[in-house]
Amino acid sequence: MNNTSTSAIGVIGGYGAVGSAAVRRLHQAGASPLLIAGRDPGKADALLDALPADGPPAATMAVDLDDPDSLDRFAARCRLVVNCAGPSYRILDTVAEAALRHGADYVDAAGDDPAHRLLCADGGAGQWATAGRTAVLSAGALPGLSGLLPRALTARTRRATRLDAYLGGVAPLTPAAAGDVLLARGPEHGTSAAAWQNGGVRERALPPRRDVRLDAFPRPVSVFPFLSTEAVRLARDTGIGHVRWYTVFGGERLAGELAMAWAMNSTDTTGLVAAAAEDVRHYGAWYGQEFHLWEGATDGPPAAKLVLRSADSYELSGFLTATAVLRLLHGSIAPGVHFAADVLDPAQVAQALAADPAADLTITQG
């Protein structure tokens, strides 16, 4: 374990796909001291050695989330704990509660509705506020950017009436990410084939579609309607009457493997990781988010469109995680428990993302 002060910005899972992307951005932004943590000290040290030597102070620490004492020792050294470990549906509120016990703020690249519910149970949100501490959840690409970018689009319109969203692509899956994909089902996460219509969820409203051509993706894709809980929150917050929310698969293997795993109630991620890798070998790696927004009548072309393209969705998650951390360090997020899309400025995030080398973002109107 390398030494650093007791007021570190600790990134658990800091050498993983999302964590390393967040660490690089935080280091470049001058956030310090950084504490890169995880079960494999060799990987943490390798990332530390790869950071520019003239940057702010950084160190590493071995932490095992299955060892509560190890997690407590880590949290005790932090003023802000950043959770980039996974799968998030196994970790849930474990890291967040350790942060609160030791008086640290918290940012989670994932940690969506199940973690939020646990942190807010029995007055938990009030405990964070009373302690003057802040927890920011869902600070990744999906959920996270998927809730923020449509808000940047609605701010450009007078009366948004309909939103169509397409999210996904072809990407390798880490075991942790595969675990999150496998477990992201049930009412806590969303409703398959549903749409948001006239202020409520309408089940069995939309069919899947194949060979859909969209600007965010380099080839025709298959889209599957899944009205996520994030989409429902977005609809309620913005007052949009109609929302269609689609998961995009750019390859052939992953969608079939995921359907089989769900049908068999399997928790083994091996098949998902292999299927995603096969899709990448055949089609390359690419990720996108595309949003179409209507004003007034919804039977014509959309009034505005936002297109996000990236070669790496993990870089996008690292971008938003780092953004949430920096805003929290600057004191612009109030104490309590929040979703990132509720407390980050959509226009500022879209502008910063458009300038980030990991992304290609365009907004068109008319």
From TrEMBL:
It comes from the Bacteria. Residues 10-111 form the Saccharopine dehydrogenase NADP binding domain. Pfam families: Sacchrp_dh_NADP. InterPro entries: NAD(P)-bd_dom_sf, Sacchrp_dh_NADP-bd. This is Epimerase. SUPFAM superfamilies: NAD(P)-binding Rossmann-fold domains (SSF51735). It comes from Streptomyces minutiscleroticus.
